[in-house]
Amino acid sequence: MAFQRRFLSFFIVVILSSLIVSCEMSKLEEVVKLHDHHILVEETSENDFLQQAYPSYFGMVEDGKFKGLIKERTDILSLEKVGGAPTSVKMVNVKNFGAKGDGNDDTEAFEKAWEAACSSKGGAVMVVPEGNTYLLKPIRFSGPCKSKNVIVQILGTIKASDDQSDYKKDGRHWLRFDRVAGLVVEGGGTINGNGEIWWQNSCKINKDLPCKDAPTALTFYNCKNLVVKNLNIQDSQQIHLSFERCVNVQASNLSVTAPEKSPNTDGIHVTNTQNIQISNSVIGTGDDCISIVSGSQNVQATDITCGPGHGISIGSLGAKYSEAYVSGITVNRAKLIGTTNGARIKTWQGGSGTATDITFENIEMENVANPIIIDQNYCDQKNPCSKQEKAVQVKNVLYKSISGTSASQVAIKFDCSSTFPCQGIVLQDIDLKLQGKEGEQEEAKAVCSNVKVSNIGTVSPQCY
Ligand SMILES: *[C@@H]1O[C@H](CO)[C@@H](O)[C@H](O)[C@H]1NC(C)=O
């Protein structure tokens, strides 16, 4: 903090002394040239990601110190590099595009603001101000952008329209970012999917209704070098946050919450995505805390707290005879509280492909119904699934330093395919006990089929 304050004062002096330079004022734009921006922007190559530099800088601007200097308008800060090309950053406040945050639809204003941010030549910051709730219909923030980096700073609340007819064109997405490179979404604000109406009409709640998809609250599709952090995402219509076909993603400090009884409200969903780190997040919803599905590679989930919900899942994989590949998945330092599963791998019969090189380590289970589970007979449909020969091959899975309590007697369940038995399954330092009930002396057990398990260190319970 002290450093930041000193840094800030220094920065104010720098700005004031350089303010004399050209302030091109137009109604919407104001240019401030900064001589010494080296303190602001780290030296980076053309393709490097400036996520470290811009957010903290604009964080300070947003702190209010500059509010008098820089009009609450579309501001351009020109960060001139000595001998280099200038990098300008445009401030785009949704308010200036007509967003009111008064309970009426603000979709159009957000669309216009996005267009301004995405088409700016340097970088851009699209600000959703604090203190208001902005009501939005489904909206697509499409790239590719002219801007090298777009920061979406959500300080206030964004709430979804709960008029289902608004979702006629695309019933699967509410907020969707498409093909944006170098995007940062942050700000400490809230994204509220307002999902109640969708839950009530889910076939899982009302068995007479047909099963239909509901929107994902926040989707990142085809995004490269993406940062999503410091956000509250709640009460989604279905999945809260989905990364699809993305490369290089950092998701951190997220709070994802929905009622335990809300159907299919996965917390974070990862599909066809490579190099993603999910860290320091608290997730409690009605479905999987994190679900990692086909095409995902090099996924790290670290310091995650889950519950309520269905736990951390790899899969489901191989549904409808599909081919699925996931590899390089590490879940490290997680706490699961009262979830129906802990560390789970689930595959449908009849699929093909592989799920390999998976590590679950340093995990604490508290009253988890199935703490460790591989389920190769997963079947989440109305009709029972018939027996199939084919299966997704599960291979090289390490469970290390996992302890705590199981809510059911079967603390470890390996239900592997008979035609493609699980390979390379290692249990190391496992200590799972049955959640204590007054007067009960039963012990937790492991139920294992079509699997050979290697035990390292102290493992309890064990497969026989
Ligand atoms: C995490 O995000 C919240 C807002 O959602 C913010 O107040 C807090 O400072 C963030 N923590 C860190 C370590 O960035």
TrEMBL record:
GO molecular function, one term: polygalacturonase activity
InterPro entries: Glyco_hydro_28 (IPR000743), PbH1 (IPR006626), Pectin_lyas_fold (IPR012334), Pectin_lyase_fold/virulence (IPR011050)
UniProt keyword terms in alphabetical order: Cell wall, Cell wall biogenesis/degradation, Glycosidase, Hydrolase, Secreted, Signal
Gene3D superfamilies assigned: Single-stranded right-handed beta-helix, Pectin lyase-like
Catalytic reactions on record: (1,4-alpha-D-galacturonosyl)n+m + H2O = (1,4-alpha-D-galacturonosyl)n + (1,4-alpha-D-galacturonosyl)m
Signal peptide span: 1-22
UniProt main location, coarse: secreted
EC number annotated for this UniProt entry: 3.2.1.15
Keyword field contains Hydrolase: yes
Localisation: Secreted, Cell wall
Keyword Secreted: yes
An annotated GO BP: cell wall modification involved in abscission
EC top class, as a word: hydrolase
Active-site residue numbers: H310
Family stated for the protein in its record: Belongs to the glycosyl hydrolase 28 family.
Protein name per the record: endo-polygalacturonase
Organism: Trema orientale
